[in-house]
Model the fold of this input.
Amino acid sequence: MQYDLHTTQSHAIPDFRFMDLVGQQAWNALPHAVRRRFGKRLTGGASVVYQGVVVAMRLNFTGHILAQLARLIGGPLPYDMSSVNLPAVVSVTEDGAGDGQFWIRQYGRAAGFPQVVHSSKRFTGPTGIEEYIGSGIGMALRVSANSDGLVFESDHYFLQCGERRLRFPTWLNPGALTITHRDLGNARFLFSLTLKSRFFGELIHQDALFHDSED
Done:
């Protein structure tokens, strides 16, 4: 994965939003590379782009059905086993109209167009951060830090209808979602997504290896 150095150096200001979520002590204990990636706010409509490759993908039967159904609201879950060993690209752009970030994830496929996932992270709500995936559906996240990166875990799912916010009942939740950003050193990091159900076990798991250039 590579940074656009002009973007990161000329169109970024310090960002303390993720530090506020995990606490300053935990933030300071993170690897420098992690703090650099999550400690800047892009300005002027600039984007940062990460390039990598999907290295692992698992779907059980229920996970496959769920991922296909989720395509009706924009395909927020990886669904194609053929994406393994194919390119992955992630771009992050600041939401100029709100306190958040736009994320676009693109996963190559053996045939057909790549899968493209759009989401918006907003620093709001009862946990301090939420991710919106389309059709008014979002999830509140809890963020924690460990020795080599950040962990994002779903707290609850909800439907936003104008000013009204409807929290999904437990039985309607698709599962517990965990996303980890693990620094591997040498300007590399591993992005992992796992969706688990207490009834159907591990539904979906994806690992993607990315690389960035040192500033």
